[in-house]
Fold:
Amino acid sequence: MRALVLVRHPEYVVILAGVAAALHIGKLPPAIPVLRDSLGVSLVQAGFLLSLVQMAGMLMGLLVGLAADGIGLRRAMLGGLALLSVASALGALAQDPASLLLLRAVEGCGFLLAVMPAPGLIRRLTPVSKLPSAMGMWGAYMPFGTAIALAGGPLLIAWVGWRSWWLWLAVVTLVMVCGVYLVVTPDADASHDRPRARSGARRPGAWVQRVRRTLGAVGPWLVAACFALYSGQWLAVIGFLPSMAEQSGLTGGGIAPLLAMVALVNAVGNVASGRLLQRGVRAKVLLATGFCAMALGAVVAFAGSNAAGGADPLLLVRYLGVLMFSMVGGVIPGTLFSLTVVLAPDEGSISTTVGWMQQLSALGQFVGPPVVAWVAAQAGGWQWTWVVTGSCSVLGLLVAHRIGREVGRARN
Structure:
């Protein structure tokens, strides 16, 4: 019965493929303590392991956004999932931090190829009446995948080791390769494709003009910068949560569901943002609310924490702060995906705007974890993490204010 549902709703397969790709983002945090012991990975190296998966997006997000239609959306997703599967399998054989770092960069290429075509595929496969709901579900692919990895990773690592955890995720991703291949309509047979648009997309001159229009407009830069300021701090906090919990004296399998909940509630914010926008809440208000909640949540979670480790009497309060940070902050990405339609210079530049937003988002995720790790290494604990995340939130509020002005201009 479930297989029949997936055949009738291939957009669900695309969303599941995104979740499978996100598992590779979330697979590392539960393994960091083990990797530090088995491979001698330092705290700063762990930060780069978290962020290197975003290198491809940082360097090529705009280009992939331009090229996906020419390559074929389905082909791009299949190639990305296959590359993720191979890199994860090879990562299980790594014997030193350098090899693992290199393979994380390769995984980043696979991740980008897998997720960049997804919004276009969902739009192609979904009836117009159900498109907002499907896009809302897609916006939650990252927190869902991260939550599953945070919940299941510690248990599997404790049972079979981190190498088997890498291999298991390679198999899961390979299964999704088969699912996309069997269920999603081939690119050449897509009934909703427009031949003129596709042939035009292949002309190099058209690509150059689209890049100029996109990067010459203010809107794409604003949504991209806003996404970077959000994603960098979110990945830094979520990525080091297991290490933070260990320093606080929390160990054992019972902690995994609590850590997974932090990622899962982010999906609540993603889905809620779409409904709030439909009810007339202004994007500027949602963005400002998200950044204020992230700043306050980080202060509650980290300010004054015990640098030396050990039991913390405010542990429950700090956990609630992290939940606020993730859940209310989740309205930011959902809002920004909706704003790309409004702030793109024209309809033909929407996917390019999304690509540019993903590229700067990847830049934020590349920089954020190493910076937080460096501050923690210098301070001997995580008690100054809120300074880094708070700085991002303040800058995000300034960008959100400017976005509000641009949205007003675009709709007048």
Summary: The first helix runs from residue 2 to 8. The chain has one domain: 2-183+192-407. Residues 45 and 98 are 9 Å apart (CA to CA).
